[in-house]
Amino acid sequence: MYAGNVFQEEENGEGESLVRVREERGTRSGKVFKNWSSNQRSNPAPVWRDPKFSETSIEVGVLGVNHPEPGSDIIPEIPLSSARAAGAPTMLGLTLNLEEGSYAFLWRDSNCKFINPKYVRLNDEYTMATARATAIEHYNGRAIARIMSFNTDLIISAARRRIRKWAVSGSQTRADLDEEDIVTAGEVRKLVFASDFLAECQIALQETMQELSGRDPFVLSF
Predict the structure, then answer these.
(1) Where in this protein does the record put region Disordered (predicted)?
(2) Residue 156 CB neighbours (<10 A)
């Protein structure tokens, strides 16, 4: 399923994946022509961006004590930033590596610098489990918005290029489609829920542990 109400993936009779744009003509037409006219020559496709810090991280606690600055064990004179002072907010973030099938929960200060979780005091409404669950929900929600926005802009830019070419050629001409103005399934960003991805990683880990349980732990491999 693609993000939101704009895209769906379905299969044809031969089992091939297709992308179908839902019939939301009124809404889509409004977005295509909003603050735009066919006089605008450049209508490039949107550029995909990685998620921002705020889209993958949530505030879950504070620093219980001052957190050492990087390198302060070698140079003690390094001044302590306000983001690492006791009482400063602490952020829990989630990162996914879809290619490698791995993930990590990362602790950072408000300046996006890594911190040691042993210095963190969670807010009263959180346990470690609920903090991670909330971080996952936050990641999912922001991913939906980001991917849906990109996919919608992708369709709009293609529609505008088609309209622009048709306007230049004149309404008496046949409105042929150039390949560059057709949105393909490969261009559309798929939504991967963090919760689903983590569940798959958990299954893979369980399979690994089951494999290990049948092996002699005292046998060394060289």
Answers:
(1) 1-50
(2) 19
Write the single-letter amino acid at 1: M
Phi/psi of residue 152, nearest 5 degrees: -65, -45
Classified as helix, coil or strand, 164 is helix
**Centroid of chain to Cα 3:** 11
Q: Any idea which residue has 């957190």 for tokens?
A: 67
Per-residue pLDDT of the chain (222 residues; tens, 9 = 90+): 333 333 444 444 444 333 444 444 445 567 887 878 777 888 888 999 999 999 999 999 999 999 999 888 777 888 999 999 999 999 999 999 999 999 999 999 999 999 999 999 999 999 999 999 999 999 999 999 999 999 999 999 888 888 888 878 776 667 677 777 788 888 899 999 999 999 999 999 999 998 888 787 776 665
Instruction: Transcribe 80-139 into DSSP letters.
Output: PPGGGSTT-EEEEEEEEETTTTEEEEEEEETTS-B--GGGEEE-TT--HHHHHHHHHHHH
Which amino acid is it at 201? C
